[in-house]
Amino acid sequence: MPIRLLLADDHPTFRSGLRSHLEREPDFVVIGEAASGAEALDLARAHTPDVLVLDMEMPGLSGLDVAEQLAEEKSPTAVLVLSAFEDEAYIFGVLDAGAAGYLSKREPLSIIAEAV
Asked: For the whole model, what pTM was predicted?
């Protein structure tokens, strides 16, 4: 059974490239995309993906807000945060909020796929 992914990033080009790369993996299926935190939260609630690949800085709800709300709801969806920010306080804040992992957007796509 493939790992069901939801991608959430407000940059369509990044999101599209990430989707193209992840869909080449035989064990992944992308079930949706979100361009805002609120949309990511709605789609995660509606479709319960195995993994939500989540940008930290998005319009409306931030990635931190989304991770906190899913954790509060005891969602089974694992959250993997991708961000351009590499500040330790930022990283530990989102991990403390319930994210399963945190990677820099500077990582190669192969590392992101491996983390998923």
From this structure: 0.92
